[in-house]
Every structure is written in C-alpha cells, then in structure tokens.
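User: Before I run my own analysis I want an independent prediction to cross-check against. Here's the chain; please return only the structure tokens and, at the end, one sentence I can use as a sanity check.
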Amino acid sequence: MTDASVVDPETSAMEAAGYLRQPGEPALVVRDGGEVVGVVTDSDIVAVVAEGGSNPPVTSFMSSPVVTIPPSTQVGLAADRMRDAGVGLLPVVEGDGTYRGVVTKEALAPYLSRHRLEITWDSDPLTLGGSDGADSVEMGDIDPSDAHASE
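Assistant: Structure tokens:
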C-alpha cells in the first residue's frame, strides 16, 4: 500500500497536474467530507488538456464512483477487482470510511507473479496449479518498494 495525495472536488485541473508531476505519485484521491468520491490519474489530466485547455475542477473529470477495498483484502481478490473494474489502482478504505492509501497494479504484480502459479513435478506430464499462498497476503502486508526493486 502506498500514499496518494488527497484533494477536494474543487481542486483545479492545473493544481491536480502539479501534484501528479511529483515522483512516485500514482494518482490523486478525491475526498469530500472525508469520503473517497473519486480518483484522478495522469491520463485524466491529458484528456482535459486535449479537450481544450480549460481549467475545470477535478469533480468534472475524476473517475467516479470509486471501487475501493478494505485493508484485509487478499492480494488475489484485489487483482480481480482491478481487472473487473478496468483500473490500475484501488483506494484502501476502512469499514468506517477512513482512507488508508492506495494499492497499485505495480505493487501487486510481484506477489502475483511469484505466488499465483505453483509448478509441481509429481508425475508426468508436468502439472500446473494455482497457489493459495498469494491469496493470503493482505493489503497492509504489501511493501510498495518491492514493486520498484523488481523493475
């Protein structure tokens, strides 16, 4: 899990672009009254610029509604939620609505690639099967530096 900057719905596109230029900034989480209501990525900013150079508030172009996960979500389930929603990151939110950070596809990849596929050579031919080990890793256990170390 990693931090992402938090902005309010009235933050301008230009200000959002400034946050996203910071190294390691995966996205912006938009919160309104403590509730996560949207996500802004660099591709959202590119789309706004391509549409004509205005400086609208992020509420007009953020991705919403937001698919979130609780901190106890297993890695495999988080990856499935990302794939099903067509997103590259998920905000991590407690049951009471408390925002904890985001999990990115880059942070999940090392856990899935190392543990998702188990190879056994118990008999001929070689058999392949899924490993349950990866699915027991929780979001709080993910170290975002692992993803960068493998790049």
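Sanity check: The chain is about 30% helix and 20% strand.
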